[in-house]
Amino acid sequence: MFFDPNITTLIRDLLPWAGVFFRIVTELGGEIFLISVLLIAFWTYRKREATIITFILIVSIVTNYWLKYAIGNPRPPASYWYGDIEAIDYSTPSGHAQNSGALYSWLGAKVRTWWMILTSVILMFLIGISRVYLGVHFLGDILLGWAIGIVIGLAGFYFEAQISDFASRTKTKYWYLLLFSIGFILIALSSILPYPGGENFGAYGGLTIGVAVAFPLEKKYVNFDFDVGRPRLAARVIIGLVLVIGVMLGLSPFLPTSEIWLRALRYFTVVLVGIFLWPLIFKKIRL
Prior knowledge:
Blueprint: H1 6-14, H2 19-26, H3 31-44, H4 47-71, H5 95-111, H6 114-133, H7 139-158, H8 160-167, H9 172-192, H10 201-221, H11 230-251, H12 260-284
Helix pairs in contact: 2-6, 3-4, 3-11, 3-12, 4-5, 4-7, 4-10, 5-6, 5-7, 6-7, 9-10, 10-12, 11-12
């Protein structure tokens, strides 16, 4: 039942008008949106919280990728895909559902207000259902993704103190070295795995390595603060997002998705720009 593609047909029959709506909603669980949220939090709110959710999402992303490869469940037939949407890796569990579950469950637990909890639940639900509506996932993929993501997000929240205490026993640079090594090894492994398992890990591996490099660089050479007015914070966000998205899209023809190491380099560059180079610039110009 949960892996019946006809559920997509049923939802479309109930909501025949919602195609464009769900095309937009599904992007709220995509990599560009998630990177943007993390960078906005890092530039304007609190580095500690931004760092925590970054690591939670890395755990979710890496776990999701290798679960997909281990389970090896194919996508629904292409005849169910909506419009020109494409999905070429494995299906189970849904990355959009899992990553949004991790992010929004952590946010709901952290903020702990009725409006944030309600907003988190609504966003998780809509992002997950959008994947079924668009025909690129089974309902079972979504349910499993939600379950795993929520467990990761809530574990990150409730065991934050214990994890921090454990991590503090070892020098931070060694943790970043471990993170760098994990990203590199996973890219290397996925580059030799049969299609489609190795297709899309370049983005995730590059992001992981980028975090391992950019965070310690920012702390050592920039270490900016938030003691500025709202107009300057808004300028950080607007200019920063234009810069980061411009780098991501501008490098795409030269570092294409089809080449896993080149895609990894593109996402490494995006993270380096967002976490280190842009903060270095806005501190120098006192923005």
